[in-house]
Design brief:
The complex is a heterodimer of chains A (99) and B (310). Chain A has 99 residues and is an all-alpha fold. Chain B has a domain of 209 residues: Sulfite Oxidase, Chain A, domain 2 (Alpha-Beta Complex), CATH 3.90.420. In chain B, 21% of the residues lie in helices and 22% in strands. Chain B has ten helices and 13 strands. Classes of the chains: A mainly alpha (99), B alpha+beta (310).
C-alpha cells in the first residue's frame, strides 16, 4: 500500500499542475492583452468596477492609497504575477521530484 | 534790465527723462506683458473683462459661497475625490488655445485671451446640479456658445458638438489610469448648443475661472447633470456623428448621452428626487430640467423614445 500511495498523485504533481496552469494563464493574458496592465484587463472585464473602487478608496479612505498603492499594482503588466508564481511553483515541484 | 522769473513748470535739464527710457517705453511695456503671459500665477491675477450680470436667468436660490465652489470639485483627471483643488493649481492656464473645428465653414484656433476680447462677455448666475445629488449656485462669467459658433459658421450637415478636455499627463495624475477612454469627451446636439442657456465659462465670482473648476474654459448647460460640462477645453468639434462620451463608455447605464436632470428617474444606486445644497447642507426637491424647463423642454419634443435622463 505505501508503495502504491507513493506512485499516486502527490503534492509535487499538484504544485506542478498549478504552476503550469499559472504559466498558461500568463501566456493567455499576454496574448490577449499584450503588455496591458491589470487595470486594463479589469476594465475590459467590467468597465465600471475600477471607477467604483477608486471612488470608495479616494473618497472614504485616503486618496493617496489609490495613487501610491493600488495604482502601481494596477499599472503593472497583467501577465507578470501569474508568470512568476507559475514559474516558482513549477521549479519547486521539479526540484522536489528530483530530490 | 532782463529779469528771469522762475515758473513752476520750468524744470532744470537734469530733471528730463533720459531719451533711451522715453523711446524704450513700448519695449518695456511689451516685456511686462510677456512676463505676465509667461507666468500662470501672474496671468491668474489678471482681471476678467468687465461683465454685466444678465438677470434673465435668476437662480431662485442664494449664491453658494465661493470657497465651497472652489474647494469641492469633480475633475476626474485629478482624481475621484473632491479635494483636487491644490493639485489642479499645477495646470498651466496660459498660454491656452482652443480649436473650433470639424463641420464648420471657418475652423480656427483661438488663444484664450483673444477669445475673451472677441466674445460678448456677461455674468450669469446658474444652478448646477451634480448627478451625485448635490447642487450649487454659481455666478459664472462667460459667453453663449452660439456666439462662438456664429463665428465659425457650422455646416448645415453638422448635428452634434463634441467637447474635449486637455490631457496633460505631467500635471493630471488621473491619466495614469490608462485604461480609461481619455481624453474626457462630452457632447450635445447642435440644437442644444444653440440654446440660449448653453454657456462657455471663463470666470466665476468675477475672477478668471480657477483650474479646479475647469479653467481657463469650460462648458455649462444648467439643465443637465454636471458631468456633461467639459472642463479645461482644448477642442470644440462639430460633427454629424453622435459622440460616445467618456462616462458613457465606462458606465452607459448610469451616465447617458442626454443626462437631463429629472427627479423622477433615479440613478441606479441612489434617488434623484432630492438634492443637497452645498454649503448649507439643506436638501430640497430636485426640479425637472433643474428648473430650466421653460427654456429647454421644447428641445426634446418628439424624442420620447430616447433615454433623455441620466
Amino acid at each position: 500500500m505505501p508503495a502504491c500511495k507513493a506512485k499516486g498523485f502527490g503534492r509535487e504533481d499538484g504544485m506542478r499542475l498549478i504552476g503550469l496552469a499559472l504559466l498558461a494563464l500568463a501566456v493567455g493574458l499576454y496574448l490577449a492583452f499584450g503588455g496591458g496592465g491589470r487595470g486594463a484587463v479589469l476594465f475590459r472585464l467590467d468597465p465600471g468596477l475600477l471607477n467604483l473602487v477608486q471612488a470608495l478608496v479616494q473618497r472614504y479612505l485616503l486618496p493617496m492609497v489609490w495613487d501610491n498603492v493600488l495604482l502601481p499594482v494596477l499599472e503593472a503588466p497583467a501577465w507578470v504575477i501569474p508568470a512568476v508564481l507559475g514559474a516558482v511553483l513549477f521549479l519547486i515541484s521539479w526540484n522536489r521530484a528530483r530530490g | 534790465m532782463h529779469i528771469l522769473k522762475s515758473r513752476p513748470w520750468n524744470l532744470p535739464d537734469s530733471s528730463a527723462t533720459p531719451e533711451a527710457l522715453v523711446f524704450g517705453r513700448r519695449k518695456a511695456l511689451a516685456l511686462g506683458a510677456g512676463m505676465l503671459a509667461a507666468s500662470p500665477a501672474l496671468a491668474q491675477q489678471a482681471a476678467l473683462p468687465p461683465a454685466m450680470r444678465n438677470t434673465r436667468y435668476a437662480p431662485g436660490r442664494a449664491i453658494t459661497a465661493e470657497r465651497e465652489v472652489t474647494t469641492y470639485n469633480n475633475f476626474y483627471e485629478f482624481g475621484s475625490h473632491k479635494t483636487i483643488s491644490a493639485a489642479a493649481q499645477r495646470m498651466p492656464q496660459r498660454p491656452w488655445t482652443v480649436k473650433v473645428e470639424g463641420m464648420v465653414e471657418a475652423p480656427r484656433e483661438y488663444d484664450i485671451d483673444d477669445l475673451l476680447r472677441r466674445m460678448p462677455i456677461e455674468e450669469r448666475v446658474y444652478r448646477l446640479r451634480c448627478v451625485e445629488a448635490w447642487a450649487m449656485v454659481v455666478p459664472w462669467t462667460g459667453f453663449p456658445l452660439s456666439a462662438l459658433l456664429a463665428e465659425v459658421k457650422p455646416l448645415s450637415s453638422a448635428r452634434y458638438v463634441v467637447f474635449q478636455t486637455a490631457t496633460l499627463p505631467s500635471v493630471m495624475p488621473g491619466l495614469r489610469q490608462s485604461w480609461y477612454p481619455w481624453p474626457y469627451t462630452e457632447g450635445c446636439t447642435i440644437a442644444e448648443a444653440d440654446n440660449e442657456l448653453s454657456f462657455l465659462v471663463v470666470g466665476a465670482y468675477g475672477k478668471l475661472l480657477p483650474p479646479q473648476n475647469g479653467g481657463p474654459l469650460r462648458f455649462h448647460q444648467p439643465w443637465k447633470y454636471g458631468f456633461k460640462a467639459g472642463k479645461s477645453l482644448v477642442s470644440i468639434r462639430l460633427t454629424d456623428q453622435r459622440p460616445v462620451s467618456f462616462w458613457e463608455k465606462i458606465q452607459s447605464q448610469e451616465y447617458g448621452f442626454w443626462a437631463n436632470v429629472n427627479p423622477a428617474v433615479p440613478h441606479p444606486r441612489w434617488s434623484q428626487a432630492q438634492e443637497r445644497i452645498l454649503g448649507i447642507g439643506e436638501s430640497v426637491p430636485t426640479l425637472l430640467f433643474n428648473g430650466y424647463g421653460d427654456f429647454v423642454a421644447d428641445l426634446y419634443a418628439g424624442l420620447q423614445g430616447e433615454r433623455l435622463w441620466a
